[in-house]
Amino acid sequence: MTALLALLLFAWMIAGAWIAISQDDLLQSVVGLSLVSLGAVGQFFLFQAPDVALTEAAIGVAASSFVLLMGVRQFGRYEDKELK
């Protein structure tokens, strides 16, 4: 059961990473990165490291997402295709 849950969390993290790199909408990319961090929190809890999981939840999910969302708010939501 633990192995199945670990594989499910790994799939969750891979899906979040795919969302983060494939979107032109920067808000959706931030959501993808938050999903990766949430998957890491689940992995840490699953492998009996609750102190690391709580730190990841506080810094990785909450603080990083807040900082990235403020950047998206400041610079705009969509990537500029003309610069490529």
Walk me through what this model shows.
With 84 residues, the chain is an all-alpha fold. The chain has one domain (1-75). Helices cover 81% and strands 0% of the residues. It has 3 helices and no strands. It has helices at residues 2-22, 26-46, 50-75.
Helix segment tally: 3
Taking pLDDT < 50 over at least 5 consecutive residues as the criterion, the unreliable ranges are: none
The gyration radius over C-alpha positions equals: 15 Å
User: What is the approximate shape?
Assistant: flat
Write the layout of secondary structure elements.
Layout: H1 2-22, H2 26-46, H3 50-75
Helix pairs in contact: 1-2, 2-3
Summarize the structure.
This protein has one domain (1-75).
Observed structural traits:
single chain; 84 residues; mainly alpha; 3 helices; 81% helix; flat; cell membrane; MrpA_C/MbhD; MrpA C-terminal/MbhD domain-containing protein
